[in-house]
């Protein structure tokens, strides 16, 4: 039974049966030999010679080694072996080869036996063909009728519809069911009814229902007390009463019933102008915007010629300038250039004075006088015009001397003449030499090299940063997308939660208590 499910899988069958694989194989071959002997299916040649049986195949020839012995002989004690025998055993490979050959032979024999078994099983399973006619399948002495005038191929090809139980469906009932399905499809294909908007909305209906419920609640509350008789519907008495003059005149408004404002059949809100009124104007405006030409970006910016034009001066000839303003202008013109232009100036004058004393030790007398005059100017500016955010300096101004404007103008002219003279005398070589003396120092070269090194480091770090940014974009792109989608879902869920909460509150208010 197991060989049919698992052919030639003796290693799998052996533990199930409780035998070794070789024992299972021997038993199976014996069973096949017995079956062949019973059925007379031995392998015989043309001369009547029979092939070797399974026992003959399994018998070992002299000199062969059993590949799968049930009990292996004990290995000899290595102590008793001499050196030559040990060397011969180490160099001998004949035993392994013999085992391999025997194993291959056994596998080939197993394949042959499996194919033989398969052939036998297929031969036994084939339905034997009988000679003559099969009366179960064929019709004896069949004589087919002649063909008629009409084509009957459609009737032959038509097959009755079988249900799950094997019964044929009733065709008229099937046709009626198909007709019902078609009618349902036609009903679904009908257009929706276009009805006008309701005059009374859902909110107005809810208001009306609430008013009715409120009246019923009032009746129920009052009905618990002793005033039930006062709330009953009174029927007018049939007996006529004598006419009496009322003590107070009746109001005219009370004769007819005044309708409720707002009415129960109208909405509580003032109807707004329908949006369909302005659709024509909106369409016209859109059509006009679509007909506009495409915008052009080719334009030039032309600056006005300010230099060529003279700025018109205000007519101030007729207006006399104030004396105080004039004095302020003159006083501002007499101040130093640094104060007039609001240039940066030193805050601590004493430190400047100490530095000048250190530098001016080896200078000429003229340079010393210039430095002293400059220091006095700085002191005066620190006292009279201190720097923004600092306090006026507490210095002595007795040594300061005021000079007239004519003398100051003359000094400026002399300075300009001297400056032009000195600049004309200087050559490019002197300028280059001074430039090299100032810039070609070890400190500047060191700073240049340090600047280049810093630039190279910046370039390397920038390239690293760009590469890392690209990697992070690749890695975190999907994550950021998921995060954004999650945030969108959270926002949508919040909106839905708020809407449902407001809906529940409105429903609770609408439910009568």
TrEMBL record:
InterPro entries: CDC5L/Cef1, Cdc5p/Cef1_C, Homeodomain-like_sf, Myb_dom. Residues 55-78, 325-341 have a biased composition (Basic and acidic residues). Residues 1-36 form the HTH myb-type domain. GO terms for biological process: mRNA splicing, via spliceosome. Transmembrane segments: none annotated. The lineage of its organism: Eukaryota, Fungi, Fungi incertae sedis, Mucoromycota, Glomeromycotina. Keywords: DNA-binding, Nucleus, Repeat. One of its GO terms (cellular component) is spliceosomal complex. This is 12639_t:CDS:1. Residues 228-242 have a biased composition (Polar residues). GO terms for molecular function: DNA binding.
